[in-house]
Specification:
Largest sheet of chain B: 7 strands, mixed
CATH superfamily of the largest domain in chain B: Response regulator
Number of helices of chain B: 10
Helix content of chain A: over 70%
Order of helices and strands of chain A: HHHHHHHHHEHEHHHHHHHH
Radius of gyration of chain A: 23 Å
Number of helices of chain A: 18
Order of helices and strands of chain B: HEEHEHEHEEHEHEHEHEEHEEH
CATH class of the largest domain in chain A: Mainly Alpha
Distance between the termini of chain A: 44 Å
Number of domains of chain A: 2
Number of strands of chain A: 2
CATH topology of the largest domain in chain A: ABC transporter involved in vitamin B12 uptake, BtuC
Shape of chain A: globular
Oligomer: heterodimer
Strand order of the largest sheet of chain A: 1-2
Largest sheet of chain A: 2 strands, antiparallel
Number of strands of chain B: 13
Structural class of chain A: mainly alpha
Strand order of the largest sheet of chain B: 1-3-2-4-5-6-12
Strand content of chain B: 15-25%
Distance between the termini of chain B: 60 Å
């Protein structure tokens, strides 16, 4: 097992390029807390090392990673220099590593759930733009059921059920009626927006959701408490964050290590072939889409009963679409998608803290996650290849 | 070929959706300016018993900002004040909620067009829209909560209802300064407290400036943190901002962000520190609420309706402060010793006596 993992590590020039990228990051890091060196010289030296490593890698033909190292080196020098010029006070306020990483996990969790849902749906060949609406329905019905039934597990169950129902509608239109899946998905989004908005006002108008709704508990790991850095991050995480980790792992196992996963991917790549060997394309697609709705809804439920313990109209605010981007950036693979969810979470957490420097640029900083995603997609990942039959309805002959 | 085809379809789909979105947006606006306020809840209530022998009751309309009337903050209290006016003065009332900043002008002008005698706009964010609408409808009286106009912008039919939030902020900040230095299960040894504002706008900054000054006056060693969530609705953003401050050692966090700020109080609950409510008395939210900086929007709205209904509408600014009980601090958590509350009340008297100068802007 370990040997196999080692065999997958980059070698030769690729390893040099990866080292260059790490050096570029390190050039920035030395200027930040807890080290915060107040002179730019170490940043510049380490950054130059990154440039050299990148140059070497490019000369050996490792273009993409090599240029990545060069960019990281230049950015490391620039950002490191800026950091040494900014006041320690500001730096301490923005860069609290443990808080940043904890916030990263909180931002990434709903994305990870929805993205896993998206992967299942798209791997089976059905585009699911309705993730946003399914998340929103999960957020509302999660808190609605938790409130009315006084139980958060029932809230979660209701959330998953509502997402699954919306997904079933989408599946019916996409699979049986062979309607355009983009339009169908958008219809789901508007439908969910309307249904949750109406029910919310009808049930809670004037009051908002009550403050004492049962919420998904945090997991207290008291033995971690004293640990440096790790303790504050992992010591008190919401149960849903741990479940998100488990969901990513399970998604990977199911998709790539079980016969079910193989069938599902076959249906998404070449439904005719799958049909010929006796796999029911319709049934597989229905199951995958319904599962994707349930997963997305769990992500939404985390937002309402896991995180802020209240509901607002349209509270998902586009997270479903970001999850869709995460699916694509992650090349329809669970671990890569999870990594992108984390990157997105980290940059969101950072963007939220940067206004300490400039209040007037606050709105600009909020674009940071999107810009970083663009850079990551263009620079490091390259072309992502969707399942061959995604978005194409299948007609049985 | 197939991938190309899929991509084109995606583009086409997106274009269609964008068009749909635009159509939905425009449609909504059209409707709200012509026939009322689609997409926003509204309510009309007439009090049959009130109004005396008047053939035509005095009609008052209220336009909320994007916080909405269930923000448990100033929009809700403006509505409370309006309901009080309906019950006690027998005026006819109507509320138009705004779902986005683009709704202010349509909502305001539709109420004016429907013959409402007084239209009240709630919130600093409605400032420009109210000025614009007041110019268009010189026969309708307008009142606005939280926005003061420059002298050259003042109109004869426009009244500003302003608060000295800095006084309320000072008092809760003073209490926070005392509490953070005290040993308890909700405080830590560090003398750090924080505030989370929605946006850097004057009413928010007056609270925060007062909060910081009050804390320093209580204990010069206290360090104050401050952040803005850039949002008055999304509780997640405020919760994140508060958690960041708590991680830096803050054991009292002050919500200055309306509905979004409820997330600050959730963060305080999760991390077992103190939270301070804003505008309304938010002690009902939980045991983590130390006290609330009160800004009695209900009083201001009621007073504005009352004088307008009596024909005593005046242009310019009406200020609500400690002396006329327009601001103050709310219920203090029961575990706080009475001496601390007494000290805060001493400061309150000093402010009323004009002995304390409180800044209005955050450095």
């Amino acid at each position: 097992m370990i040997e196999r993992l080692l065999a997958r590590l980059p070698r030769g020039a690729r390893a040099v390029a990866v080292g260059g990228i790490v050096a570029g990051l390190a050039a920035f890091w030395v200027a930040l807390p807890p080290l915060h060196l107040r002179t730019p010289i170490p940043s510049i030296l380490i950054g130059l090392a990154a440039l050299a490593l990148g140059g070497y890698a490019i000369s050996r033909g490792v273009k993409r990673l090599g240029w990545g190292a060069v960019v990281a080196g230049v950015a490391g020098i620039g950002l490191g220099y800026l950091a040494t010029r900014s006041s320690v006070d500001h730096l301490d306020q923005v860069v609290v590593w443990s808080a940043l990483f904890a916030a990263m996990l909180r931002y990434a969790t709903p994305l990870a759930f929805a993205a896993m849902g998206g992967i299942f749906s798209e791997r089976s060949g059905v585009t699911n733009i309705g993730l946003e609406g399914m998340m929103l329905s999960g957020a509302f019905f999660g808190i609605f059921a938790a409130d009315k039934l006084s139980s958060w597990p029932l809230g979660l169950a209701a959330a998953a059920l509502s997402g699954a129902l919306f997904a079933l509608v989408h599946a019916f239109f996409a699979i049986h009626l062979r309607a355009d899946q983009i339009v169908g998905g958008f219809a789901i989004n508007f439908l969910a927006l309307g249904v949750t908005g109406y029910l919310f006002i009808d049930t809670y108008a004037g009051e908002g959701t009550p403050p004492d709704v049962p919420e998904i508990p945090d997991v207290h790991l008291s033995f971690l408490e004293g640990w440096y850095f790790v303790g504050p991050i992992l010591g008190q995480l919401n149960l849903m964050i741990w479940l998100a980790f488990a969901t990513v792992l399970l998604s990977w196992l199911v998709l790539f290590k079980t016969p079910i996963g193989l069938r599902l991917r076959a249906v998404g790549e070449h439904p005719r072939a799958a049909d010929t060997v006796g796999i029911s394309v319709y049934r597989t697609r229905y199951a995958a889409v319904v599962l994707s709705g349930a997963l997305a809804a769990l992500g939404g439920a985390y937002l309402s009963i896991g995180f802020v313990n209240s509901f607002n109209q349209n509270m998902t605010a586009g997270r479903g679409f970001i999850a869709l981007a995460v699916v694509i950036c992650g090349n329809w693979r669970p671990f890569q998608a999870a990594a992108f969810a984390l990157l997105f979470g980290f940059s969101s957490a950072l963007a939220q803290r940067l206004p300490a420097y400039s209040e007037s640029a606050a709105v600009l900083f909020q674009a940071l996650p999107y810009v970083l995603t663009l850079i990551a997609v263009a620079g490091v990942i390259g072309r992502s290849i969707p399942p061959a039959a995604v978005g194409r309805p299948y007609k049985k002959q | 070929m197939s991938r190309q085809h899929g991509f084109l379809r995606l583009l086409l789909g997106l274009a269609v959706c964008l068009a749909l979105l635009l159509a939905a947006g425009c449609g909504g606006e059209d409707e709200s300016s012509s026939s009322g306020d689609t997409g926003s809840t509204e309510s009309t209530d007439t009090d049959a018993t009130g109004g005396g022998g008047d053939a035509k009751p005095f009609k008052v309309g209220l336009v909320t900002d994007i916080g909405g009337i269930n923000d448990r903050g100033f929009n809700q209290f403006a509505y409370e004040g309006l309901k009080q006016a309906r019950d006690e003065l027998g005026v006819e009332i109507r509320v138009a909620q705004s779902d986005s900043n683009a709704d202010y002008v349509p909502n305001l002008s539709s109420l004016a067009r429907q013959g409402y005698d007084l239209v009240i706009a709630v919130g600093f964010l409605t400032g420009d829209a109210t000025l614009q609408t007041a110019k268009q409808f010189p026969d309708t009286k307008f009142a606005i909560v939280d926005f003061g106009y420059a002298p050259e912008d003042e109109l004869p039919n426009l009244q500003s209802l302003l608060f000295k939030e800095q006084q309320a902020g000072y008092l809760v900040g003073y209490l926070a300064g005392l509490v953070t230095a005290e040993k308890s299960d909700r405080t830590n040894p560090q003398l750090v407290i924080g505030s989370v504002g929605g946006q850097k706008i004057p009413p928010v900054d007056r609270y925060i400036a007062g909060f910081q000054k009050g804390a320093k006056d209580a204990n010069a060693k206290v360090k104050t943190l401050n952040a803005y969530s850039q949002d008055f609705v999304d509780q997640g953003k405020c919760k994140e901002a508060a958690l960041n401050q708590i991680e830096q050692g803050a054991d009292v966090v002050f919500n200055v962000a309306g509905g979004c700020g409820l997330g600050v109080l959730t963060a305080a609950k999760d991390s077992n520190v103190w939270g301070i409510g804003v505008d309304s008395d938010q002690s009902f939210i939980g045991a983590q609420v130390l006290t609330s900086a009160r800004k009695k929007v209900d009083v201001a709205v009621f007073e504005a309706v009352k004088s307008a209904e009596a024909g005593e509408f005046e242009k310019g600014t009406r200020t609500f402060e400690l002396t006329n009980e327009g601001v103050g601090f709310g219920k203090v958590a029961s575990s706080i010793p009475q001496e601390m509350v007494d000290k805060v009340e001493e400061q309150q008297q000093k402010i009323i006596d004009g002995e304390i100068e409180i800044p209005e802007t955050v450095k």
